[in-house]
Amino acid sequence: MLDNVSVDLPLSPLLTFPGAVAGPPGTPDAAVAWHYGDPFGEQRAAMQGATVIDRSHRFVLSITGAERLTWLHTISSQHIAELRDGESAENLDLDLNGRVQHHFVLTDLDGTLWIDTEGERGQALLDYLAKMVFWADAKPEAAPDHALLTLLGPRVAELTAALGIEELPRETYAAVALPGGGFLRRMPWPTADSFDLLVPRTELSAYWSRLTSAGASPAGLWAFEALRVAALRPRIGMDTDDRTIPHEARWIGGITEHGAVHLDKGCYRGQETIARVHNLGKPPRHLVLLHLDGSADARPAVGDPVTAGGRAVGRLGTVVDHYELGPIALALVKRSIPVDTQLEAGPMAAAIDPDTFPADDAPQAGRLAVDRLRGR
């Protein structure tokens, strides 16, 4: 369950389609389909064919006004002041201490900046943006009349006719308008062939039917989450807590680096922490992929401690079964923990995937500069 939020989202109309099994009760994902009867087959299809996934429980808002980009640029972590029409980015809202409050994806198209974020956190993000407008020509508003679908797979290109477009966006984060409203946006994750589809909510069922009739197989959110975890992409509130800073969650980087924090911009809340950790310090924790022992009778839950020899060394995030990797999870673990440490996650033995263990032994540029000034 997402941290520090209640779960009260309207059910997606697509849950009435044949085979849909709702997400785990008591979680925000209960509002959409978790699978359609073949969870591993749906993951495989997302990697080899074309699938459509209901993510209509995402909160959508829009920002209009001539200063929408330059204004948002000054209060968020990504460099978006010069974003061009049809371009997108990932972005963060941080608190004064650099801790992550919101992660969101944005697209600027035809004079409107569209933002989608976690359903349970969207209103809080909108409230914050609204109170920060002051004198700027920017108007943030909820857009409940739009909803998000995701297309995954190398055969998504075969769906262009069903979408009413000539070709898919070629560049990462590029978006093209859809006839009748909305857009198709290329994303860098969770797979190499990932596209978000923002459509009018009244057309949600029609798009679903059109896409599945054109060859896209229905896939539940389980498939998206499994591939997201394998791609080491965190979900705020699941894989983060109220202490998480962007360095820990691998959100550092500009648009071309597929990150959410541009290191060469200023003028945003929390930037002092970002600069200090990047130039002089080290993040206290790392986001890593854990392989879990599937023989245990019970499964750990989001937020459970990760322990080593009975001592807490981290926090467990998303736990999911992957069609090839088996039970896996994301976790924030202390930077001092060696990669080969024997871990426990709840009732299960766990091991860090060595390929996901970050190498951060290199000294920071700021530290080297200080040493040079001191003649070291």
UniProtKB/TrEMBL annotation:
UniProt key word Methyltransferase: no
Pfam family, one: GCV_T
Keyword Transit peptide (UniProt): yes
Sorted UniProt keywords: Transit peptide
Annotated InterPro entries: GCVT_N, TrmE/GcvT-like, YgfZ/GCV_T_CS, YgfZ/GcvT
Stretch forming the signal peptide: none
Name this protein carries in UniProt: Folate-binding protein
Start and end residues of each GCVT N-terminal domain: 42-249
SUPFAM superfamilies: Folate-binding domain (SSF103025)
